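--- STAGE predict ---
source: upstream dedup step, 1 unique chain passed
mode: sequence only
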Amino acid sequence: MRTLLVLIAWLLLNLPAWAHKPSDSYLSLSVEHDQVEGRWDIALRDLADAIGLDRDGNGQLTWGEVRDAHGEIGTYALSRLMLSAGTRSCTIQMLEQLIDHHTDGAYSVLRFHSNCGGPIGRLRVDYRLLFDIDAQHKGLLRLTQGGQTNTAIFSRESAVQEFSVAERSRWAESRQFIHEGIRHIWLGFDHVLFLLVLLLPAVLILAEGRWQAAGEFSSVCWNVFSIVTAFTVAHSLTLTLAALDVVRLPSRLVESTIAASVVLAGLGNLYPAMTSRRWLIAFGFGLIHGFGFAAVLTDLGLPHDSLLLSLVSFNVGVEIGQLAIVAAFLPLAFMIRRSWSYPRLVLTGGSLAVIAIALVWFTERAFDVQLFPI
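--- STAGE serialize ---
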């Protein structure tokens, strides 16, 4: 009981009130002979944190403020990107800056040209954007040459990577997106809390209006299996539809609905109306969560062969992350299910705490306000 309470308390106390998806930038490089044409999409909110774009301090970025900071934006970004071919460093020249809109807001688009002074057999990319202020930031790369596409993900731990423009390592790409899927589920605290809220009553049964301990571990596992499978099938479906651009919903709507799903799932534990078919709840809200998972892939704009590989690998990573959460939680919950405090402290208290956190998320996302500084 003490271990499980400490685990839940740690999760609740360390959850930042993220109102948006984690920080990502999108870097596209096109290689031809000794030249590289580049496009780099960086979120304005990230640039505002890094170099202070909001000059009047009113909390709102204007086009004038962004335009006046073009020189500073270009200098800041390009000082954190280095390209080289073998022993030759590639010069980078800024061409223009534009504004584009992704699923989660406005981005500054930097278009640049790079000359490597000779044929490019292997391209080395040194990516250092935002790592000094955001350890969780990721850079998503699309590298194309002669109709062939490579993808990669830069993190603080893998800031320097080298690519053969003549060869493509599908295993390396798959491995990176599996890792990204695991990271996304573990750092996507709204997804984690939704899953945990559904799992909290899994070791209990409702009899005569009261929660009682479930019997055999096999029946508990079957209940959990149905919940996790329903959630997996649902979010895999909408993740695929969104990543293939068949269906696309506004990020603000998706993120707000995800927060609302956590609130409703928590309320379902306090006022249980559907205890025998909780998999239906997991499936219904899993459809919305899938759109949240898809955001990291759709904005990268991968061609279909790379997108399918990335999609499958990313989804495998998400499932690995989910199974790790279930494996850590379920045995502890089953061992203490008969205690007096499980239905009162863990189920009721945990659900109330999750509802409070999710209400903050919903307010921030739906009304675009920040209730707590982070």
